[in-house]
């Protein structure tokens, strides 16, 4: 029988021969995925790469056992059937094709793969009427379930606390270079560079609506400019700073957010109420930047305060003087 999509079968409609063939192809695919992860992680995360090499070897052991069982029952010719040919079989999102895939996502994906494999073998064992096949599939399911997640088991055997800590530090550095650093630069630019035009307009016109429009234009324009600049000037391959798209989005969004913070109070129709709230927002923005610099960039508080708070105060004062004059 066929599902609504032509050519795709239900799992319940597969024969035992087709189930074994599906298991063989799934083990082959998973082994190649693990080898791909290992190759990708080799340079920066050698201990985790070694774990994935071991996992790929385990997949090959399972594959050979399944092929042997197929030969015993059905002969050497294995039907071609893959996950995508079965409508209700668990699908694999091709995250292994994603550039700059993070270490945490790779580990999580491996654990999901093992959980999916265990569930498949449990269902396949229930479908089998041959004692030998049922026993083998049940053993494979038990192996997966006994250890919870094979990735965690191999981590305990192959990834020492020291190695895992070093790899986590490397992953944190990557996150800082790809998201935190561009986002912080954007937040600083949006929070500081838009102070002068927004408050100059506010004190020149005393009109909240005009100030709001100028603030929105300045924030959105600065966000677009910073986002494109960050994405275009470095593809991340030589610098190791990661995906230019992620960096551009982080920089652009945080730039716009920094400018919008002290523009949105001018939704309030009363000029002085809106301005007082905007002053409070600016104060909070600048000290938030100081905290982020100290927390993620390990910048000393005094130096960060001098760079951000003093600099921001000077830009704010310039805008007020220009607008008020």
From TrEMBL:
InterPro entries: Ccc1_fam (IPR008217), Ferritin-like (IPR012347), Ferritin-like_SF (IPR009078), Rr_diiron-bd_dom (IPR003251), UCP035918_rubreryth/DUF125 (IPR017040). One of its GO terms (cellular component) is endomembrane system. It is found in: Endomembrane system. The chain crosses the membrane at residues 210-228, 274-292, 304-324. SUPFAM superfamilies: Ferritin-like (SSF47240). Keywords: Membrane, Transmembrane, Transmembrane helix. GO terms for biological process: intracellular manganese ion homeostasis. This is Rubrerythrin family protein. Residues 18-152 form the Rubrerythrin diiron-binding domain. CDD domains: CCC1_like_1 (cd02437), Ferritin_like_AB (cd01045). PANTHER family: BLR7895 PROTEIN, RUBRERYTHRIN SUBFAMILY. It is a multi-pass membrane protein.
